[in-house]
Amino acid sequence: MSTLSIFVDESGDFGDSADGYYVLAFVVHEQHHPLDPHLQTLDRQLREIGLEGHAVHSGAAIRGEAEYRYMAWEQRKGAFTRMHAFVRRAPILYYSLTLKRRDHPQRFSLEGAIARGIGTFLQDRTEYFRAFDEVVVYYDNGQAEITRILNTVMNAYFLQVEFRRMQPADYRLFQAADLACTLELLRAKDEDGVLTRSDLFFFESARKLRKDYVKPFDSKRLA
User: CA–CA distance from 218 to each of 7, 46, 64, 74, 203 (Å)?
Assistant: First the structure.
């Protein structure tokens, strides 16, 4: 039986606001393509910089927050670049939806836009998705609105879909979805000229961000 795994992560919230962005990212993995060699390489590379067993949180690494608060820039950057390299090597693809909150300042407008975006994403790739016998969606149930939208929209498109709640630290592919969210948010901020001081410090310049991280990631976009 052929199985497709979809890992979902988001950046943003559903509060009424006209500021910032909302990003939703899907990382897809056809389970007949082995991941173990790539996972082992990532684990080894993290161990080499003193981060054995570390769950990479890309946004926090950039901002120096949470577990990265007292970590040197070189180690934070090392975690980020190794996760970026893992995604580029591994047999996975991603899709993202980026919305500007000024276009959807109210909660219900944002929910509707996300539902339409996911629906269009699935409809445009119907032949691809329905080639699988089973679709398994992994989400940490971080936002009730996303849980509800995923259940509603995906059950309308797939005959066989299973939802699994998981902990981000337990799945590298969820951490890959987190990276996809982070990079797409950075892309939007760069295009609008609103990269923060933390962003520019971490990547050294907007040009390096685009050249070394954002553009290479485009090769992993699900067509």
Answer: 18, 24, 26, 25, 18
